[in-house]
Specification:
By secondary structure, this protein is of the alpha/beta class. The chain has helices at about 120-125, 140-150, 170-175, 175-190, 235-240, 245-250, 260-275, 305-310, 365-370, 380-385, 395-400, 405-410, 420-435; strands at about 20, 25-30, 40, 50, 55-60, 65-70, 75-85, 90-95, 130, 140, 155-160, 195-200, 220-225, 260, 280-285, 295-300, 320-325, 330, 345-350.
Amino acid sequence: MNTNNPIVSSVIKNYSYTQNSFLSKYVTIPLIQEYGSSYRVLVKPGDSVQEGEKIAVSEGTAVYPTYIHSSIPGTVTDIISCTLPNGKQEFAIKIKFGGSFKYLGKNKKEDNTDSLSPSVITESLLDKGVINTFYISRPKSLGYQIRAMKKCGCIAVRMFDEDPHRITDSLVAKFYLEQIVKASKVVAKALNAGGIVLAIDQKMQNKNQLKEYETDNLKFLEMNIKRYPCGTPREMVSAFSRSNLNKNCKFSLSKQDLFIDASSMLEVYNAILLETPAISRNIHFSGNCLYSSCMLNVKVGTPVKDIVSQLGGFVKTPALIIINGELGGASAQSLDLPITKDIKSIKFVSSRRITDEQIYSCVNCGNCRNICPVKISPDLLYNTVQNVMPLSEMLRDSAVLCNSCGLCSTVCQARLPLAQTISVLKENIIQNKKEEEK
């Protein structure tokens, strides 16, 4: 599918920096920040907390625990219920701002990582709560991923956004290229990986800086990102195999390797080289309801409504709040939504930009099958689920192949939620398989 991708236009050239968002009087930090994990509270109402203090620990992972940290100094006021970007309800820790900062505004010198062992690096990633948002709908603890990998010949870093309606990772790659390169070497050391591939947009603005970073074990893979999907492991491995790197490198890239996005790699840099826990996110704000778009570094738990005030309020009343892009993202229902570690972008859209959302009956046009990059039948999977029919082994296997690109929903004339239905189905199949293996 060819797209009018803003990344390959002049849009990204208009950005030259990111800045810190204003601090909120209260933050609400949900007790889930990654896919498939739950957390146990380590604090109680009335407790004073410092910026970066551990306030929750993952349950069921006593051997490799990961943590959630307070993003501001202050006092825990309550344990409340909040709505996540995916629409689910979750408990959250509400903290009132007050006190001095430990990390914000402090000049931190880079630590020397030469003496760090792979196990120390991995433990630090777990301790600092770093998550991998390469799969934005299924963010995972990076430290736990590294622990679970039995073999990794290479790590691949996606330096652009897989959703053509988002430019967050592209901006992070533009602003923090040196930091990402350093962090990539740290992760490669933790995995004892033979090589590092940084996949970049072939029209990347600061591409002339790349040669100084290249080594025998670190290479840049140029990709044409006009065609969607282009940021999946399948597409990246395919691009690598077609490039000269496949012939000239001492290492190769496969779908079994570790794939990370630029935003997550910047979190690795902060955690390992600056010893700072994951307490903030770089988020791109856009939409026709704002005076202008911008990139902000926002504290985790900050309500979206507080950020809107910093942006000057709305020029139009938003009818839709789109989280993480129009193809693979979600629609938020309230400005009270707190910032979580898996949010990369927020777009505010007015009613005049919203098309007909009515769902109709399938017209059997076949568009979803024709456009599917992995050649499955989204219409059959959808109808099977909707009609509560037994799932054949063939359909079950095909659902697992889905790469969540969302193209089937995009071209569906009946506006059926094909991609969303298959995503839930795939999640249930994988979960059932895990339970059967126990």
